[in-house]
Amino acid sequence: MKRFKNKKTFVFDLDNTLVKTNRANNESYKEAIRIVTGYVLPVYTRKRFTRSDLRNYLPELSNDDFLRIVEKKENIFGDFIETTRLNRNLFTILRALHENGNKTILLTNCHKKRAIQLCMYYGLNLYFNEMYYYEDYQNSKYEFLFNRGYDSGSIILFENEKKSTKEALKCGLDKRKIIKVKF
Predict the structure, then answer these.
(1) pLDDT digits over 5-27, tens only?
(2) Would you tell me how many other CB atoms lie within 10 Å of the CB of residue 51?
(3) What's the whole-model pTM score?
(4) Which of 95, 142, 153, 154 could make an S-S bridge to 171, C-beta 3.0–4.6 Å?
(5) pLDDT at 21
(6) Which of 68, 83, 98 finishes a domain?
């Protein structure tokens, strides 16, 4: 297996790191819930609405309706893409790193379809050497990256979530090489 040592690799998360997506995500859920169930739920934009929240808000929801809502949400996300917001400062860093010959990777828990929509909308795809999505790995996205031959010492990570940061640390990333991004 090819090992990538001593050369820095810059790894970027997508949701709420490179692009603020909570509002589009929440509006997509709100509309999907309305279409499938007829309910109009107050879905707020500050906190990200998740599948767990869906179960908590509608505990009586059948599994079929739950899956229909999730599928509908994924399919209509593009209708709300204009409510997303690019992290312009981080985008400037990404572009500069890529244009100066550095290896840049998108590594996201975002589903492929939605990630590609966002990347195409903002032109982010032009600045990544590699792009990996939720569907590309079984467990940890960081384990996946290391299994592809990347050395934990060579990675500089841009991340916004505490949970993902803890996962990265658990997988051996150096705390000093994790850049906490706040939008």
Answers:
(1) 458 999 999 999 999 999 999 99
(2) 12
(3) 0.90
(4) 142
(5) 95
(6) 83
Q: Which residues contact 73 (CB under 8 A, 6 or more apart)?
A: 25, 28, 29, 31, 32
Q: How many domains does the chain have?
A: 2
Interval 171-183: pLDDT, tens: 889 999 999 998 7
Reported as type and span, the H/E element at residue 166 is helix 162-170
The pLDDT of residue 5 = 45
Percent of the chain with pLDDT over 70: 95
Tokens of 16: 């709420």
Helix (H, G, I), strand (E, B) or coil at 101: coil
Tokens of 130: 């590699």
Q: Which of 15, 169, 177 is nearest to 81 (CA)?
A: 15
Token readout for 99 is 């244009």
Q: Which of 15, 57, 54 is nearest to 160 (CA)?
A: 15
Strands 19-20 and 85-86: antiparallel
CATH number assigned to the domain comprising residue 133: 3.40.50.1000
- Angle in degrees, CA 13, 15, 16, rounded to 5: 100
Write the CA distances from 124 to 86, 103, 138, integer angstroms: 10, 14, 25
Q: Work out the burial of residue 84: count CB atoms within 10 Å of its CB; fewer than 13 is exposed, 13-18 middle, 19 or more buried.
A: buried
Task: Say how far apart CA 80 and CA 136 lie, in whole Å.
Answer: 25
